[in-house]
Amino acid sequence: MKLTEREEQLRTEFDRWALAGRGDEMEQHHWPIVQPVLERTCFQPCDRVLDIGCGTGWLVRAIAARIPNGRVAGIDVSVEMIERARRLSSDFQNAEFRTGSVDHLPWSDGSFTKVASVESAYYWPDPDSGVNEAVRVLAWGGSLWILINYYRDNPYCHQWGPLLPVTTHLLAADEWVEIFSRAGLRDVIYSRIADPTPVPEVYTGRWFQDADQLRRFQEEGALWVQGTHP
Ligand SMILES: C[S@@+](CC[C@H](N)C(=O)[O-])C[C@H]1O[C@@H](n2cnc3c(N)ncnc32)[C@H](O)[C@@H]1O
To answer: 32: domain range?
Structure first.
């Protein structure tokens, strides 16, 4: 499938991240907010799970280990992220990876019982279209959830947008709920997941002004939105 200009920009940017080793760093950064979500997710032994924007595939492997008789797939627009994911996942017979964009998922309708996405949905060129496509591949009774750190209700992340060389969507929790509902999902709920990672005394990165802003950001927490395919 030929990528649009926006998708090409995303591929270029995230290929760069992968080659710089940032794909691997994200496992460490995102695990503290993903772990509580996995704990509240009721996995069934034969689940078929999809992770959209899977990066280096650490979540695919974590879920594949939980459901050895199920199947877990990951897709990412970045070729380099998927190459790394495949290399790291050779021991997992029940994991597969594809390169591609959320807008054209290469699976037939109703292929998955659960679809998840971590820190990716605000990059999707059109969130409505991405969520619609995620719902298309979801089986009846299946669930979709996204987990994002960049959303309007957390004021301590707003400075990220101008720092990123790709377009992002800074939406509020209510707007994500509307997008999920418009896509036909029911029982749409959201919650905040605080990040308990200890904050260093001095922050030297580029994403936050200082350690205090990082601490406030972590306390506000990530946004988790979930809906069910009726
Ligand atoms: C911040 S990274 C998060 C990666 C991974 N979920 C993690 O937590 O480590 C965002 C990921 O979303 C992917 N992505 C962005 N836009 C996408 C799209 N339109 N379709 C598929 N993947 C996309 C990027 O290539 C990147 O790997």
So the answer is: 5-228
Q: Please compute, for residue 47, the number of CA atoms within 13 A of its CA located in the half-sphere on the CB side.
A: 25
| Ordered per-residue pLDDT tens for the chain, 230 residues | 799 999 999 999 999 999 999 999 999 999 999 999 999 999 999 999 999 999 999 999 999 999 999 999 999 999 999 999 999 999 999 999 999 999 999 999 999 999 999 999 999 999 999 999 999 999 999 999 999 999 999 999 999 999 999 999 999 999 999 999 999 999 999 999 999 999 999 999 999 999 999 999 999 999 999 999 99
Provide the Cα torsion 161, 164, 165, 167; round to 10°: -40
Counting the structural domains of the chain, the total is 1
Our answer on whether the CB atom of 26 is closer than 6 Å to any ligand 1 atom is yes
* pTM to 2 decimal places: 0.98
Q: Which ligand 1 atom sits closest to the C-alpha of 130?
A: 19
- What number does the ligand 1 atom closest to the CA of 124 have? 19
Note whether 67 and 43 are within 8 A (CB): yes
- How close is the Cα of 77 to the center of ligand 1, in Å? 7
Pocket flag, ligand 1, residue 15 (CB < 6 Å): no
CATH number of the domain that 20 lies in? 3.40.50.150
